[in-house]
Amino acid sequence: MGKGLVLAGEPMGLLIAQSEGPLDSVSGYSLAVAGAEFNVATGSARLGHKTAYLTKLGDDPFGKLIARTLRNNKIDDSFVIYTKERTTGFMLKSKVSKGDPEIFYFRKGSAASTLSAEDVEKIDFSSFSHIHLTGILPALTDSTREAVKLMLKKARDAGLYVSFDPNLRPQLWPSQEVMVEYINGLAAQADMVLPGDGEGAILCGTTDPHEINKFYRGLGAKTVVTKCGPRGALVSDGDQEYMVNGFVIDKVVDTVGAGDGFACGVLTGLMEGLPLEKCVERACAIGAIQCTFVGDNEGLPTPEQLKTFMETHARRS
To answer: What range(s) does the Carbohydrate kinase PfkB domain occupy (predicted)?
Structure first.
């Protein structure tokens, strides 16, 4: 087992509609926790890895829910900062039987949006081996962009392996041009980049996974794994390029969180010393499992559940 994984992001309260229909006409919601980096942290911890999470929470019901959920999942919360000045962000998610759900955020001016370089300065990264970043936290404010910049520098100085998922949220950026420039700038500094083929259209000008991988290898990333939905993922590493086929599932319930499950699979596999192809195979499995659950992270498996799924589900040909 590796030394462990550190992440930073904005976890939010998640209100999931209990019936289908527009968000303004739904009569009831169930309560959960959302956030891309939170999902990866949860998956890593459930698979038995030392996992720490940096964020800032408000002193409010959503903040308390998130803090309790971190502890319940055995995620190290010693990097969590609390403030009475701002509230914790939250979001609404519609219930759908096909297609992607409707999402609405209440996160402007949130506690996490004030995360700063000063908050990062106090953190010692030397007890970790891996850091996972996404394009969401730097999208929030100038302050969070500076925090991510310093995190990357401190992690690099401490010798951590850096993975990066673009996780595009265009509505959070001032413009598409700013988003593309910043995201690709971060990707160029990562050891591994995990784009989706759909994101490639905006970030690389193509949805062809071979071209996406070539683009990010050209920027300097050592390894690129482009997610291709249910088909699997295309891996470029050194002079090797190969496809890892996805798993067949009976029914897709909700695709939200599948990419985060994928990232969790790759990273935990790397920390366990698995060959990269096996890491990506695990990633495809966790992504598929997550698609069979309504919540953003409820499906993330234990080692036993993951083993059972991989032994009982066929791969796409």
So the answer is: 15-302
Give the residue carrying structure tokens 């595009």.
168
Q: Is the pLDDT of residue 1 over 80?
A: no
Any domain includes 122: yes
**Catalytic (active site) residue 60:** no
Q: Which two tokens stand for residue 316?
A: 């796409």
Confirm whether 289 is domain-assigned.
Answer: yes
- Judge whether 4 and 128 are in contact, CB under 8 Å: yes
Measuring CA to CA, which residue among 214, 175, 51, 195 is closest to residue 134? Answer: 195
Report which residue type is found at 136.
I
Average pLDDT over residues 50-69: 97
Catalytic residue among 165, 237, 254, 260: 260
Domain total in the chain: 1
Report the CATH number at residue 283: 3.40.1190.20
Taking the complete model, does pTM exceed 0.85, yes or no?
yes
Pseudo-torsion of CA 119, 125, 131, 136, nearest 10°? 0
What are the φ/ψ torsions at residue 75 (nearest 5 degrees)?
-90, 130
Name the pLDDT band for 294 (thresholds 50, 70, 90).
confident
